[in-house]
């Protein structure tokens, strides 16, 4: 009988979470590099380049791929011949591993888990508790899959109870435009079919743990309905033209994963869960010989890619930019930002809106300023700030008009598209929205030369900072006329792809 010690599981979970915070799986790197080589849209190709460069930097620097270091999901398969040498429950052991990983001084990971989700929404401080699924299976080992899922991609999950005769393909393609680009494509879609409502969602999440192998499936052909769905959806989703970061292009997904389970005769539960460009998961096995060993990948696994400033790039000094200058910016322009850049995301925006509603003065003057939607990782060593990539901009849409009209805010920087409410407010106020690449947080942080909390310090990573940036790369995503590249880009590339089919 195998004896598994408490400390071995705890340390293995902690090590796994550190490992996936800075190492992409090799299959993901290979697939992303292939997408980079294949991509024809310069904007999408540039976004993929930034993701790959960021990935290599994180692998060498052992810092998080994305500032959103995720909510932890763990699948534990316990062999029935295993005996535990432990005082803690299985859940408590896993959560202690999470706690150690997220508070490790050498690579502090951002704590994003909030207790009392419909009330105080108080940060637990150590990213616990994890979402844990157990299964008793034959055998004498403990098999563990650890994943860290970002909130932006998790927010785009979809579920429906279809009628038995309804088409899964049609439903998935109907949901795709509703998901926008906040899940940071190109990534993967996990699809769960069958069981009950909760089973379908678990199947979709579990499907994302499988390696990228769609090319091998294309070569050998489908042998069951799930594989037929994978092939059909892979082709049709990529024909949508959504592309990297929603900018339009040839690759929207790197793979489609499908898992199914028997279901009731009256039901067809279907779930979609996307995995973003910060794909983070690893598997390890405990056999009683000690903590799991996770081999470091070779740097040769990463392609040598350089990011170059193209012709026509705009260099902008945020300290003296004017509304007149902003009106000259064109959709799709690459802009390098330098100067003082404010930050603020959900909690800070809510607090500012509440203060304005009460007639109170804000703690910072937003007139002719730019605000960056970000919640950075804490710095370590000589860093001024940890990885600081953008968060999903649409969550701030409902606050946008009020801030633009009542504070004189000139522009915003975030991830992915803006919704109709925000676009109308941007157009009406002659403002601008700039997009930074999601999944390139450590690369973005290199442009930040100074960081200081200037308001709402009780909000932790959601406080308002003032960054001093130098040549921070962004794209004009919504110009002062309300033209959105997230609408024009995919539409154009969908037409281009359709002409080739």
Number of H/I helices: 15
Low-confidence stretches: none
Beta-strand content estimate: 15-25%
CATH class of the largest domain: Alpha Beta
Give the overall shape. Answer: globular
Strand order of the biggest β-sheet: 14-15-16-17-19
Return the structural class: alpha/beta
List the domain count as a whole number.
3
What does the largest sheet look like?
A: 5 strands, mixed, barrel
Mean pLDDT: 96
Name given to the CATH architecture of the largest domain: Alpha-Beta Barrel
Name the assembly state: single chain
Percent helix, as a range, is: 25-40%
- Beta strand count: 19
What would CATH call the homologous superfamily of the largest domain? Fe-S hydro-lyase, tartrate dehydratase beta-type, catalytic domain
User: What do we call the CATH topology of the largest domain?
Assistant: fumarase
Query: What's the N-to-C terminus distance?
Result: 58 Å
Q: Radius of gyration, rounded?
A: 23 Å
Q: Can you give me a brief rundown of this structure?
A:
The protein is an alpha/beta fold.
List the helices and strands and how they pair.
Blueprint lengths: L1 E4 H17 L3 H13 L3 H20 L9 E9 L2 E4 L4 H13 L11 E2 L6 E2 L7 E7 L4 E8 L1 H4 L3 E5 L5 H12 L7 E8 L2 H11 L6 H7 L4 H14 L14 E9 L6 E8 L5 E6 L27 E4 L5 H4 L7 E10 L2 H12 L12 E3 L24 H11 L3 E4 L5 H9 L3 E4 L5 H5 L2 E8 L8 E15 L6 H16 L1
Parallel strand pairs: 1-3, 2-6, 9-10, 13-14, 14-15, 15-16, 16-17
Antiparallel strand pairs: 2-7, 4-5, 7-12, 8-11, 9-11, 14-19, 17-19, 18-19
Helix pairs in contact: 1-4, 2-3, 6-9, 11-12, 12-13
